[in-house]
From TrEMBL:
NCBIfam families: MMSDH (TIGR01722). Keywords: NAD, Oxidoreductase. Residues 37-494 form the Aldehyde dehydrogenase domain. Its EC number is 1.2.1.27. It comes from the Bacteria. It holds the Pfam family Aldedh. This is methylmalonate-semialdehyde dehydrogenase (CoA acylating). GO terms for molecular function: methylmalonate-semialdehyde dehydrogenase (acylating, NAD) activity.
Length: 514
């Protein structure tokens, strides 16, 4: 397979023609931008623009959706056996070549290569789930519900389905949706984040190599214009969105107003509750891994440790000891943590450290002082630990989405649970304890969609469904697992009579079973 198909001739501005432009992928081939609208794509560890990405206009949106709509009927009618063969091939190619994809992700997102490989593996799990989709697409059958009458149900694909994804998991988040959507017989139009667009094109090429018909996996690059195009187009039957809460709310409201089925996963502020009987070495490792992995740019990152006293002081000592050993730098150099995705985002995250300080918190470790193992122009911010975070501070109430871990001290389990339940978000949470009864009580009482018990990033495996509560999910269907199958199919119930000729003649009364 070739590397990403880059088109250097898509812009009119002399200054930008020197850099390649990531094209759309429409009807099974690279589709150079006709609009000339492009966005910048950075290498965050170098701090420079390395390429551009096409930003779709109306004509490109139409071309993408029209190609998917034209390809859909034949794919819908392709046998399950043939669809499954392609799914197996795709999964095998992904497994064989994931190293290539990881390097692409690191060069545009900044996360370290091992972490990029990790996200690909979690996405691959969904492709593996989809290789068995023939089983999940089975309907139900009831014989003789009335004399000579059988009732059965079937699950059919929706048609053209839209996926709109965030920057932080350019491979995994789209993979939560497209393997199931495709195996179920739909045609996918993926609108990836414009910050790290190339992973989507790489996946599109892989699908082609696996034998997927042209038009069934389309990549439409762009910004709000492309998103609005998908949300309002009558040919698009559903939207699967993942991103920040304000945009998730907008996507849910706009998509449903236009008659679409919408699942919109939003932002997060995940708390880890530490009870006094917890193993503090385990907790410190978990806090570091989940707080600073991927520079905190994970929707399941732990951003607040709720320490039930007297654990805060000994726990802070163990966390800071570990933080001193973390190496922040270029993700291609074997570092623990990479840069943030853009300068704007780095500055925004750093501003929250300032806000916390002004609001009276104690900065225990200040990531603004980091000396990175990388280019000085990279978008660096080191791991930061903040103690005694006031819960009235914007640094506590708002999602930071960076390597900033806050400690909030509480006196009791009940106080900790109330704090978590009072929060606006409900994506993930964790409890660390050796008391099974306390953990069981927590899983029952906590108002959050995904819970870890002595597990800091409780991301369910692909056979279960992924999604939070409250401002972390709009709509009533989560990603992948049984809910994913339900989202990407619509049911028909068929009532059938064949052999009994006596239908009772004319009778305008409501049919009764006999
Ligand atoms: P974002 O909301 O800025 O962007 C997400 C998508 O929406 C992108 O494709 C982007 O192009 C598009 N978009 C951005 N602004 C838009 C606008 N005004 N109108 C229409 N479309 C718009 O999110 P991000 O910064 O790319 O990703 C980080 C966010 O995603 C965080 O809030 C994180 O918590 C969240 N996230 C949530 C989950 C989850 O499962 N709940 C998973 C991953 C990321």
């Amino acid at each position: 397979m070739s590397t990403i198909d880059l088109n250097p001739d898509t812009t009119t501005d002399d200054a930008v023609t020197e850099l390649p432009t990531v094209p759309h992928w429409i009807n099974g081939a690279a589709y150079p931008s006709t609009s000339g609208r492009v966005g910048d794509v950075y290498d965050p560890a170098l701090g420079v623009v390395t390429k551009h990405v096409a930003l779709a206009d109306k004509a490109e949106i139409e071309a993408a959706i029209a190609s998917a709509a034209a390809a859909f009927p034949a794919w819908r009618d392709t046998s399950l056996a043939k669809r499954q063969t392609i799914m197996f091939k795709f999964r095998q190619l992904l497994d064989d070549r994931k190293g290539e994809l990881a390097e692409i992700i690191t060069s545009e997102h900044g996360k370290v290569v091992s972490d990029a490989l990790g996200e690909i593996s979690r996405g691959q799990e969904v492709a593996e789930f989809a290789t068995g989709l023939a089983h999940h697409l089975k309907g139900e059958f009831s014989e003789q519900v009335s004399t000579g009458i059988d009732v059965y149900s079937t699950k059919q694909p929706l048609g053209v389905v839209g996926i709109i994804s965030p920057f932080n998991f350019p491979a995994m988040v789209p993979s939560w949706f497209f393997p199931i959507a495709i195996a179920a017989g739909n045609a996918v139009v993926l609108k990836p984040s414009e910050k790290d667009p190339s992973a989507a094109n790489w996946l599109a090429e892989l699908w082609k190599e696996a034998g997927l018909p042209d038009g069934i996996f389309t990549v439409l690059h762009g910004d709000k214009e492309a998103v609005d195009g998908l949300l309002t187009h009558p040919e698009v039957k559903s939207i699967s969105f993942v991103g920040s809460t304000p945009i998730a709310r907008y996507v849910y409201e706009t998509g449903t107003q236009h008659g679409k089925r919408v699942q919109a996963l939003g932002g997060a502020k995940n708390h880890m509750l530490v009870l006094p009987d917890a193993d503090l070495d385990l907790v410190a490792d978990a806090a570091i891994n989940s707080g600073f992995g991927s520079a905190g740019e994970r929707c399941m990152a732990i951003s607040v440790v709720v320490a039930v006293e007297p654990v805060a002081d000994p726990l802070i000592a163990k966390i800071t000891e570990r933080m001193a050993k973390l190496r922040t730098g270029d993700g291609r150099r074997g570092c623990d943590m990479g840069p943030l995705v853009t300068k704007v985002h780095r500055d925004k995250v750093a501003s929250y450290i300032e806000i916390a300080e002004e609001d009276g918190a104690t900065i225990v470790v200040d990531g603004r002082d980091v000396v990175p193992d990388g280019d000085p122009n990279g978008f660096w911010l080191g791991p930061t630990l903040i103690d005694s975070m006031p819960t009235s501070s914007r640094a506590y109430t708002e999602e930071i989405f960076g390597p900033v871990l806050a400690i909030v001290r509480v006196s009791t389990y009940e106080e900790g649970v109330k704090l978590i339940n009072d929060g606006a978000f409900g994506n993930g949470t964790a409890i660390f304890t050796n008391d099974g009864g306390a953990a069981r009580r927590f899983q029952n009482e906590i108002q959050v969609g995904m819970i870890g018990i002595n597990v800091p990033i409780p991301v369910p495996v692909a056979t279960f469904s992924f999604g939070g509560w409250k401002a972390s999910l709009f709509g009533d269907t989560k990603a992948h697992g049984a809910e994913g199958v339900r989202f990407f199919t619509q049911q028909k119930a068929i009532t059938s009579r064949w052999l009994d000729p006596s239908h009772g003649g004319i009778n305008l009364g409501f049919p009764q079973n006999d």
